[in-house]
Write a structure and sequence with these properties.
By secondary structure, the chain is of the alpha/beta class. The chain has ten helices and twelve strands. The longest helix has 29 residues.
Length: about 290
C-alpha cells in the first residue's frame, strides 16, 4: 500500500466514477483501476461494488475511507510544510569588519537587520585592511565594513556609511586626563605606540612632520590587543579612530589640531545582480542612521 493508491481510492470515492477520478488525478483510467485493485489485494477486501451500472463504496470501503482521509490530510500537510521550508531556507552572509572598527555603531544596526531578516544567518569576521581584497575576490567574504581606500579598486562597489575623527588614548593616570582636548605637540612629548594596521598611518606621519613635529615611537605592533595592553600599562599613548573597540577600556580625549577623518564604507564585489541576502544587507546599511 502506498500514498498514490490511497489518493486514487479517495478520488473514486468522491466521484464514484473511475474515468472522472482518473482525469482528476491526471492518470489513465486503466492505471488508476490497476492501482486500486492492488490496494484491495493488499487489504484483503473489495473497496468498491462494481456489479451495477454505478460504482458504490462497500461497507469495508466506507470504513477505510475515514482512515485514508486522515492519511491524505497528513500527506498534504507534510507536503505544504516541506514546500514552505524549502522556500524559506536560511541564507548565510559572511561579513568582514576591519579590525580597527569597534562594535559601538554596528551592534544596533545588526540587531535591527536580524529582526527584519530572521532567515539570514550572519557570520562576522575580524579582518586586517591588507587582506580584504583577497578575501572578497576568493568569495570568503560577501561584504566588508572598512575605511575608504586611498585608491579606488574598480572590482569593488562601496556604499558610504559615516565619517569619524580620531582621538588620543592613554592610561587612567595620564596627564592628558586633566585636559579637555590634546594637541599633536602634546602627543609628541609622550612615548607613542604605532598601530601598523591603521589605514591612515602614512598620512598621519606625513601630516605630523609637515607641522615640524616628530612622533617618539616606542613600540610598533600589528596587534590591536597588544596596543591596548600597552596603553593600559602606561607604556605610551596612541591615536585611535572614534569607533575603535579599544576606547571602551581606556581613557581618551579629542585631538584639537588633527583634521584627518576617515570614511567608513560597506564594500562588496561589483556584480550585475546581488544575492538576496546581500542585497537586503546593503539596503539596510544605506537606510540606517549611523550617527
Amino acid at each position: 500500500m502506498d500514498l498514490t493508491q490511497i489518493r486514487y481510492f479517495l478520488a473514486v470515492a468522491e466521484t464514484l466514477n473511475f474515468t472522472t477520478a482518473a482525469n482528476a488525478c491526471a492518470v489513465s483510467q486503466p492505471a488508476l483501476s490497476k492501482a486500486i485493485r492492488k490496494l484491495e489485494d493488499t487489504l484483503g477486501a473489495e473497496l468498491f461494488d462494481r456489479s451495477g451500472k454505478q460504482v458504490r463504496l462497500t461497507e469495508f470501503g466506507h470504513s477505510m475511507r475515514v482512515h485514508f482521509e486522515v492519511i491524505e490530510e497528513n500527506r498534504r500537510k507534510a507536503l505544504e510544510a516541506a514546500r514552505a521550508i524549502a522556500s524559506t531556507q536560511t541564507e548565510r552572509l559572511n561579513v568582514g569588519i576591519m579590525c580597527t572598527i569597534g562594535p559601538n555603531r554596528f551592534a544596533g544596526f545588526l540587531q535591527r537587520f536580524r529582526m527584519d531578516n530572521p532567515l539570514v544567518e550572519l557570520t562576522l569576521h575580524d579582518v586586517a585592511p591588507d587582506v580584504i581584497p583577497e578575501l572578497m575576490l576568493s568569495g570568503a567574504l560577501d561584504c566588508v565594513f572598512c575605511a575608504r581606500s586611498a585608491q579606488h579598486d574598480p572590482r569593488f562597489e562601496a556604499v558610504k556609511l559615516f565619517s569619524e575623527g580620531f582621538v588620543v588614548a592613554f592610561d587612567s593616570g595620564h596627564r592628558f586626563k586633566m585636559m579637555n582636548s590634546v594637541t599633536l605637540a602634546d602627543v609628541t612629548e609622550e612615548a607613542y605606540l604605532d598601530r601598523l594596521h591603521c589605514e591612515i598611518r602614512d598620512d598621519f606621519f606625513t601630516f605630523t612632520r609637515s607641522r615640524g613635529l616628530e612622533l617618539n615611537v616606542a613600540v610598533r605592533s600589528e596587534r590591536e590587543d597588544w596596543i591596548l595592553e600597552m596603553i593600559q600599562t602606561g607604556l605610551g599613548v596612541c591615536i585611535l579612530p572614534e569607533s575603535s573597540p579599544m576606547l571602551n577600556a581606556v581613557d581618551h580625549r579629542p585631538l584639537s589640531d588633527l583634521p584627518n577623518r576617515r570614511e567608513l564604507e560597506l564594500v562588496s564585489l561589483k556584480t550585475g545582480v546581488l544575492a538576496p541576502a546581500l542585497s537586503a544587507f546593503r539596503t539596510a546599511a544605506l537606510d540606517a542612521s549611523w550617527t
